[in-house]
Design a protein that fits this description.
With 195 residues, the chain is of the alpha+beta class. It has four helices and nine strands. It folds into two domains: 114 residues; 64 residues, no CATH class. The strands form two sheets. The protein has a seven-stranded antiparallel sheet with strand order 1-2-3-4-7-8-9, with no helix packed on it. A two-stranded antiparallel sheet has the order 5-6. A hairpin with a 2-residue loop joins strand 1 and strand 2.
């Protein structure tokens, strides 16, 4: 899968309290889809930095926040039937078709038969008549299960260059964990004061 994207971050603070808002957009292109899936992520964080008196270049920041994720809801694509179903379906094709027909004729409820007539029976018929070379066109209406989740995090700034950071998605169905060691380098340095 190929992924491209970009993001933007805005941050500020008042005294030891700081806030940040970031937004990211990515295009994810799995090989079997005809168009990329667009995923948008927005994160909002607010925290406080606790500076060490004896080491003013070091501090600990603690924050809470939230993250919102949404994605493009419709995806269409195509796949060979033999790639869509497990290999043992083709190895045991006759038994599979017989089992389906037995279920349909003897156990399926009227509601299940209505669903099967629309979606399952055409696939089983294709399996029965072919070797899996048929191409199946499909569409999916997908979305994340829960758009919002809560965040909690902490960063230890060892000095002006090195930081150790951890963050977890702790609320909601979407869980995440981040642990990183960051190095900050200065692009522009202040000129020494003129004497």
């Amino acid at each position: 899968m190929t992924t491209y994207g970009f993001g933007i971050l805005a941050a500020g603070g008042v005294g030891p309290v700081w806030f940040s808002v970031d937004a990211n957009m990515t295009w994810n292109k799995p090989a079997l889809l005809d168009k990329p899936t667009i995923v948008n992520v927005v994160g909002i964080r607010m925290g406080k930095a606790f500076v060490f008196k004896k080491r003013p270049q070091s501090n600990i920041s603690i924050w809470i926040g939230t993250m919102y994720v949404t994605m493009q809801s419709e995806t269409v694509g195509s796949i060979a039937l033999k790639d869509a179903l497990p290999p043992d379906v083709w190895d045991k094709k006759d038994a599979f078709v017989d089992n389906y027909n037995n279920w349909y004729n003897n156990e399926a409820t009227p509601i299940q038969k209505k669903f099967a007539d629309k979606y399952l029976t055409p696939v089983v018929d294709a399996i029965d008549q072919r070797n899996g070379e048929s191409i199946v066109q499909y569409g999916m209406d997908k979305q994340v299960r829960q758009h919002w989740n809560g965040l909690i995090g902490m960063q230890y700034q060892i000095n002006k260059n090195w930081q150790l950071r951890t963050e977890g998605g702790v609320l909601g169905n979407r869980k995440s964990f981040l642990l990183s060691l960051n190095y900050r380098f200065l692009v522009f340095r202040k000129a020494p004061p003129k004497v």
